[in-house]
Amino acid sequence: MKALSILLFFLMLMQFAFAQNDKQQKLNSYEKERQELKINSKLDKNSTSIKPIIWVDKKTYQRNETIRIVVEIHKEINYDGSEKLTFNNNLKLQFIKKAYSHQFNNGKESSYIIFFYKAIKTGKIKVKPFKVLIDGKLYITKKIKFKIV
Hints:
This protein is of the alpha+beta class. It is built from 1 helix and 9 strands; from the N terminus they run H-E-E-E-E-E-E-E-E-E.
């Protein structure tokens, strides 16, 4: 009977340890997602223009690296998830996911559409201008370029 009690105790202890590990893994994934959505605005803080811009974190990426492409606007937009980017050669990129964030920074309202891609092949990438409808008016960003080495 004592051996059975000890066995049950160890089984419960193992179950608790696995539950704690699972909880930590979930917390780690939430923190990773929070960091992915952490954005340092590239828009002029003093500007009243709502013209959107498109940007990447850097100009050169390694193969298999995750690329974050951000469309930033000084206005809340009606985000429906259908927005897409177009490229000169999208065979070098693999789509991972898309996210939307709306924030207030120092009294300024900003919306971000964030696209995540994986760099598959080396080469130069041109992201064509992004189009977004804001308050019935069509706005178009400039194109951007980066490379995969």
